[in-house]
Amino acid sequence: MVDYSKWNHIEVSDDEDEVHPNIDTPSLFRWRHKARMERMEEAQLERETMDKGVAEARTKVEETRKKLEQLKTQGDTEKAKAIETRLKELEEDEKRWRKKEEDLAKKEKQTPWNVDTLSKEGFQKTVINKYQEKPESEMTDEEIEERHRTFVKKNEKIVKKFGMFKKLDDSQQFLQDNLELVCEETSNYLVIWCVNLACEEKMALMEQVAHQCIVMQYLLELAKSLKQDPRACIRPFFTKIKKADPEYMRAFEDELQAFKERVRKRAKDRYEKALKEAEEELEKEKQARLGPGGLDPMEVFESLPKEMQDCFESKDISQLQAVVAAMKEEDAAYHMKRCVESGLWVPDAKKADQEAAEKKAAEQGQGDNKEEEESPEEEEEEEESPYAEIKGDGTSV
Q1: Whole-number Cα distances in Å, 227 to 224, 234, 283
Q2: C-beta separation of 218 from 237 below 8 A
Q3: H or E element in which residue 113 lies
Q4: The pTM is what?
Q5: How far apart, in whole angstroms, are the C-alpha atoms of residue 144 and residue 147?
Q6: If I label 145, which of 106, 153, 197, 292 is the partner at 20 to 30 A Cα–Cα?
Q7: Could you read off the pLDDT of 312-328 as tens digits, one per residue?
């Protein structure tokens, strides 16, 4: 039969009793609550003192017993008798503490339960939800790029370390120790690394990293097919691939070879694109430096005799005049004409500079707006050839 007597005296609440109208109810409730808390503190202190006394008494008895056994082993009879007497006193003291403990237990059992002692907490657990990132399908291109950049900055070293493993057991253990690597960012980084290695013609290393890249891609695909977190699929994936099922391994090797071929093609396309861009850049530079006659000054300079090259490099007009005078007239005229068409030599440079300055001043409104009429009887000056000019007055190079 169930004994319900323990429920007879329970202090369920401080405010359940009706009080006289002349009594200040809030003050009475506060007093009751304070008195109950004080009684609980006193009971707690009494229990702590009791537990401490019982423990000390038990410890003293055990230590004395060990000491008595040592003396009996050594054959010291006199000291053994004294210790026996002391042991009996300690055992009596322990019995008294045991009796006090039993009395206290009875007292605690008779104490009415209240809201604080009615039940005890069995266990306590705190759960903090982790931050859930947005799925990639809901992210913008800028957010995806920023996430990849952040991942690479934080984990680049350990991703490269994973890419260098050759044994499946090592790869499995490393991923289990670094669960943050089991994600699309790791696969993307390994792909880019493979292409860079192929561009550097490090094919052996590229093939090693490519194998780890396919391992990561297969692991992620397995997680998608099972609709589980990729981190929970590490052990199942490596268990499956270690069994070396012929069909599964054939598919794995086919995908690995196809991936290597795509990497080589991508590296070749990147090389050809870079080469084409470099050629276009060189062509732009060449077009930018072409002279008024459409010739490249660098090519013309390289075709000049060594003596003329020295003159242009030192910008020595008198030396150039001497070199031209010493050459055959046909050769000198040919080279000087090419120099003018390439811009290496500017005929009548002083006059050209003066005209340019006057034109600039006129555009700024600082020049004279009055045009001078030229006499119709004035004869046009005959244009002087570059060869004749260099033989006559010197001009700037």
Answers
A1: 5, 14, 55
A2: yes
A3: strand 113-114
A4: 0.47
A5: 5
A6: 197
A7: 888 888 888 888 888 88
